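Researcher: Let's run the pair from yesterday's discussion. Sequence first, then tokens, for each.
Model: Starting with the first of the pair.
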Amino acid sequence: MTRPDEPVEMVEMVPASFDTRQRWVRVTGERGNGFVEFDFAIGEPDLYVEMILTPEAFAEFCAANRVEVLPPRAPGAGTEGPSDWDWRLADATQTRFKP
């Protein structure tokens, strides 16, 4: 930690590459009524939003966004064990919340 009277060393910041032309989907499930659950990412496959569409709308969405389809995520992939952060919005359908 620097003290106020010490000079601060300047470090050149180099922006990470973030190409918004790259888009991915990863199918995460299918509901009983046929809706497709999937993750959609732009520029970085690990930064995504969870979405749900009908199969027809999903196919149209993928074509319009020219996505690359990612393989299903292996259970526990990228984690060293269970975590409070290892949670998806879809998990809320099976969780009871306290008022």
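Model: Moving on to the second of the pair.
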Amino acid sequence: MRMDKLISMNLLQALLVIYLAAIATIKAQTPKCTTPSAGTGTCVPANECHPVIDFIQRNSPLSQADKEILRSYQCTVDNSLRVCCPDSKFVIPSSNNSDNELPPDVTVHKNFNLLPTECGIAGGRFVLGHRTSLYEFPWMALLNYRLATSGTDFRCTGTVINDWYILTAAHCLITSPTLQLISVRVGEHTINTDPDCEDGFGNRYCADPVQDFEVAEVIPHPEFDSKTFENDIGLIRLAHRINTTVYSVHPICLPTTETVRYRNFENTNVTVTGWGITDTGRKSDELLYATVPVVSEEQCRNAYQQRQVVVTRKQICTGDVNGDDFCHGDSGGPLEMVTYHNYRVKMIEYGVVSFGPGTCGQGFPGVYTRVDYYMDWILDNMKP
């Protein structure tokens, strides 16, 4: 073989190796994602995802339902909007499949105006660790129960969503002769101190007195299943109007508008708050928070399969290698996330604490009822 041909072949082989290495580097830098049907995918520009292009071409002109389905495939890389292009067969969720249904649009609901526009705004300062400061989570509520033996105890939590209503878990409302819900407290921070005060910037701040209310009506979801914890969501209407003009009490926002309703939680962290049992084995007197990662629907389903618990799209799962998550006493409390809502940065309640492992924050993901799927039910059951 002539020397010039040998050099040419070696050069081609070298160029091929460089090309393949470049392709592998590009693929390695392309973030993975989870599709709405719980499959794996790659977050790429829409014009590079052939299944999406085919779907658009087959269904043009697109209906509103088609647009909402495609929107659920959105993902973001470096603030650039892309689509989660599936690695295997492309599955478009069907509106006829109850497990794949999309959250309802309630912006035209007759009771939509019962939800305040001034919501989700915290007046506190974030502190290091898991402690919270005064006014940091002013929507938190404590549910007080009369015990069978004697006395009372706070056994569940909830959130203020307007001047009359508390959002909580349905299982917190299914009481018995030995455990009766008798009142709700808002504006609390540290249970055994009155008033709640803290020092900051050379000054001492004290919160307004707590507000305790009798219960006018409990509204658990009619399809709540105490065995599977499906539809674990409920409302409490209080006997008197909440004073939300004080710094220590303020309603949280719910996922109502389109920009916050179709949320992809993959690779995101969320916040949970409550007075539940800590690693000391006792309930906390002080309101605490934890930041936890969202676990994919597929991972959560696999984790609970052995326990014959079915996790659906109407739930969100979280977990942390350090064991940070909700605990006993946090039931009914919020899974929260800061996002841009109605032109302002606000805190949105995306989940209600439902159930988890026997040992707090370890072994199995924590499971939350996903609020956006129940917005029509929430508004249906609210009144002025």
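Researcher: Give me one sentence on the second I can quote.
Model: The domain at 30-92 is CATH 3.30.1640.30 (mini-chromosome maintenance (MCM) complex, chain A, domain 1).
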